[in-house]
Amino acid sequence: MTDVTAADPLAGLADRRFAAVIFDMDGTLVDSTPAIIRAWTAWAIDFGITAEQLAGGHGLPSADVVRRLIAEPDQARAIERINELELADLADIVVLPGADLALRDLASARNAIATSASRPLAAARLAAAGLVPPTVLITIDDVRRGKPAPDPFLEAARRLDVAPEDCLVVEDAPNGLRAAHAAGCATLAVLTTSEPAELQADAIVPNLSAVRFRPDGEEITVRLHSRTG
Question: Exposure check for the chain: N or C terminus, fewer CB within 10 A?
Answer without folding.
Answer: C
